[in-house]
Amino acid sequence: MSYVELPGARVPIRMWTDPASVEEVALQQLRNVATLPWIKGLAVMPDVHYGKGATVGSVIAMQGAVCPAAVGVDIGCGMSAVKTSLTANDLPGDLSRLRSRIEQAIPVGRGMHDDPVDPGRLHGFPTGGWDGFWERFGSVAEAVRFRAERAARQMGTLGGGNHFVEVCLDTDGAVWLMLHSGSRNIGKELAEHHIGVARQLPHNQGLVDRDLAVFVADTPQMAAYRNDLFWAQEYARYNRSIMMALLKDVVRKEFKKAKPAFEPEISAHHNYVAEERYDGMDLLVTRKGAIRAGSGDYGIIPGSMGTGSYIVKGLGNDKAFNSASHGAGRRMSRNAAKRRFTTEDLEEQTRGVECRKDSGVVDEIPGAYKPIEQVIDQQRDLVEVVAKLKQVVCVKG
Are 370 and 328 in contact (CB under 8 A)? Predict the structure, then answer.
């Protein structure tokens, strides 16, 4: 579908979904964002749903300003995927051992490594820039610097919620490795620190929603946030790269006879800020639950833990600020999912997937998410599908 345009206070709201399918609280959030004095455009992806401050599945383009709550607390959260030389025929009938080996190699939930991972010991990991990255930690907000050891030990860990590590098959039977995670606790603490600072600034006192408090250009607060934001985005990318390297090592050991090879890694943030130029303007584009889909950009759009996921290539649609959805998107809250579904429902909806099937992950049940095929169909003018994947192993925190 092409987009539907709704009137907004300062800019139109371009929606790649039926507005009637979006809950009223999310529509109100979009209307609130469209009142911001600095806004130059607002694009809404088909996986849109209510979030903190700004809706998940929105792309907010502003000039000379950025809203830390619209970025979210998991700065740099995103996806990585790698196609392997393995095929379905290489996989054993019982995948429980493979899942167990992955869980041993990659800490999940609030877990962390006993000692920081040394990337120099990881097969083929690009270590250039690693030392400089950690040296820049000394310039982040003083309020979180005491977390240095924790940040180092959480590098290369999954976290909880909707984060996952998966082994998937594409429609040709090729095995893919895929994972979803972000900047862990250090990104959360940096985000919460700056959101608190922004809420107190005088220029934000008259906003319709204080969660939309912004930093503006040429101020020390903006400079401090940009420094910490871009550092956290880099942390998130390194975090995924190290997890992928650990995952590859598991696969090499488990499938030694097959001598698996790996194609280049596809990696895409979906909670982040980028400096981009549109209509002759230098803008700060915030993608909250959206990926960059410039012409030729590879991206990953996952479904839920029992459905398919898609590898896509961007078509470069300027009306969407070269963006696409970041996943299926929730159609009910976590609490609503826990009230509605049981572990028996979870077992039924994840049949054929080696994964957790206990009450701790009922809120991640496929039924709590929008149908991924519908979400993909609504953005045919934003991306083209390169591969469709179906998970056979799913590790969650």
Answer: yes
CB neighbour list of residue 195: distance below 8 Å, 6 or more residues apart: 68, 69, 73, 211, 213
The residue from 180, 193, 270, 326 that is catalytic is: 326
326 carries an active-site annotation: yes
| Region label for 121, one of left (φ > 0), alpha (ψ between -120 and 50) or beta (otherwise) | alpha
Q: What is the pLDDT of residue 1?
A: 59
Is the predicted pLDDT of residue 124 greater than 90, yes or no?
Answer: no
Amino acid identity at 227: N
Q: Calculate ∠ Cα 59-224-205, nearest 5°.
A: 65
CA-to-CA dists, residue 126 to 120, 129, 137, 298, angstroms: 8, 9, 19, 20
Quote the mean pLDDT of the chain: 96
The length of the chain, given as a count of residues: 397
Residues 6+ apart with CB under 8 A from 350: 305, 306, 357, 365, 366, 394
Band of the pLDDT at 113, cuts 50, 70, 90? very high
Tell me which residue of 26, 127, 54 sits closest to 273, measured CA to CA: 54
Q: Does residue 9 carry a pLDDT above 90? A: yes
Report the pLDDT averaged over residues 85-106. 98
Q: Please, are residues 213 and 204 in contact by the beta-carbon 8 Å criterion?
A: yes
Separation CA 337–CA 318 (nearest Å): 36
Look up residue 364 and give its amino acid.
E
Q: Determine contact, residues 242/155, Cβ cutoff 8 Å.
A: yes
How many angstroms separate the CA atoms of 103 and 81, rounded? 18
Q: Is-above-0.85 flag for pTM?
A: yes
Sign of CA pseudo-dihedral 57, 305, 84, 131: positive
Q: Residue 397: what pLDDT?
A: 85
35 burial level (CB within 10 Å; 0-12, 13-18, 19+): middle
Nearest-angstrom CA–CA distance, 321 and 58: 11
Q: What is the pLDDT of residue 189?
A: 97
pLDDT of residue 374: 94
